[in-house]
């Protein structure tokens, strides 16, 4: 929102709609200043209510308030009357008050034409001056204590000074034809004034009027309803507000006149002019920014409406609206726009807004107010974030903490019937046992215990035992046995009376279904009481799988032997895993004795033990053969191959009875009875490939011969031999045994395959031969190269025969030496008898024994 010389301060209608949907956070907070019993808080719309105040002036030390009765009261900034400084100045309504910068003198004027100068520290300079007409404005020189000068305004601007012999001197500065002057503002040597026609600035040093700017109010209302409001931005800039218009006037010095002996000539220039969307009834400047008190409308019948405080921030050549905060004033419907007044207190950075019936203090909202705003808007998560992340360490909240924010959040959620979400915040809100107990009992009364139960604390704070028992008994009466059991498991045993709850549970076991559900609760209580055996008995009686968890949790493995069958009936796999994983506490022999009456379970147990470690069940391998044959014959052959501690004859008998031919073949093969095994393969299994595999594993030539003999006359067997045993048998012999009249399906393909295999074998042989020849030649070449290379002989080497040094560096000519391929070194003269043989490496030593 940027005002310029032609546009309004404010946005478009579209922006206004958006602002209604998402109202901006206010900048100010407003509070009423109560002046003793003076401010009436009566909401009656009676027009007979008398006005309380007529004008106000502020100082860093106090407030000075004029009343329609002519009385002037002095208060602190909170409205407390300072009785020793009260002034009885006038008998008619006080029109204006002015305070010097030091706060030592107060000037006031009234309707009967009197001006009173009152000293607060001493009365020697008090003055009471009477004029011939009503005085609407008075302004002390900011340095009044020294100059004793002040100005008044009626139809003329009059300078008042001390005369000779303590007399009074009046000097008319300028005469106006635009009505009475109602506002005066003194800045250094410049005096700004306003009347019903406009605003002028007088240069006291030059004793001349710099200029006058006419202003326009609301045309349909009488002149003076919206008087001009003025405020100095700085010593050369004046802000003017009248009705819906704002002007910024700058004072410039005429070029070339700065160095004149007399005061330089100055001029007024309008640097900025723009419209606003409300009626200005008060104006003050804060570091070139403007704070405007305004109303939406005024009528003689309805008075003023919707007062607000607006901040316009200076942005170079434009002003932008930063805040527009509406508020309420007492009896504003009885107030006219010209009766409002706003004053700024720089030290406290606050504003005082006066009407005939009210004084409102506007302060900038602090960080606590920001959090309060978010809470009121039900933006609790934003409020929590704001608390945790203040903009600076100096702006930490003082009135709010996380608990108070969460408490407001909880109340809001409860009102919105979002109880589940509210309960999630209970631990952050309620910190005492009494608070928790009240909430729990409330939820129980509403039959909503399920919502809060998960958040009930068991420590920090720990509640009274009666509350925990109340919760448990409530679930018991409501027959919510699962919820009851979960609480019994989760809650520690020392926060309530276990025995009393157990008794209540037993009284409720009125039918089988209820009894079964409550037995679990009794089991939990028994475990908490340390009676683990009772807990296990209850779970076993119920056939409840929690028995396994109890055994693991309490390490009861050594005590479950009598209950193995019952545990198997509950969950056989879990029981088997437990038995197998804890063989140190449950020996295999002990478990075997218990499970003998249940062969299927015994087989499953021994199978698991064998799978983990075959040696652990070696004492029962013979029994396992029979068990595998009865319950898992498909695993028997694998067992027979791995196991090594079973009775071969009993195993053979079992396999023959059960017609387990492959297992029988394996056992006969292990027993060394290959012909019988081969006979079973051929006659019972009719599996030529299995027969070939068996013969290949045994490697017996007799079995191969027997296999060929058994295959004569059987085309399928012959073809199988041709296809799979070509490299293991004499094919010529097999082919010769085939009768000329025997038809063998696929014979041609088998013979072709034999020829192809032969060709491949010959090709591989040739390739291998070439590779070997190549490698031999390469190795020979490497050996010859090594043998032809020299051998390093040092003076530390000794002759292998005489053990003397081979040579000496001290002798110029050393005797010749010989080095053999075995790297033994000799003096040549030491091996003259047999120079081509190493005497050390030869089988018969040439040098005799060493």
Protein model, in words:
The structure is a single chain. The protein is of the alpha+beta class. Mean pLDDT is 85; it is low at 1-22 and 38-45. The relative contact order is 0.04. Among the domains are: 28-38 and 48-365, YVTN repeat-like/Quinoprotein amine dehydrogenase (Methylamine Dehydrogenase, Chain H); 790-845, no CATH class. A six-stranded antiparallel β-sheet has the order 18-19-20-21-24-25, with no helix packed on it. Helix 20 packs parallel to helix 22, helix 22 (648-657) packs antiparallel against helix 23 and helix 25 (688-698) packs antiparallel against helix 26 (701-711).
Please give a quick description of this structure.
This protein is an alpha+beta fold and about 850 residues long.
The span between the termini is: 121 Å
Shape: elongated
What's the CATH topology label of the domain at 28-38 and 48-365? Methylamine Dehydrogenase, Chain H
Strand order of the largest sheet: 18-19-20-21-24-25
Main sheet summary: 6 strands, antiparallel
Assign a percent range to the helix content.
25-40%
Oligomer: single chain
CATH top level label of the domain at 28-38 and 48-365: Mainly Beta
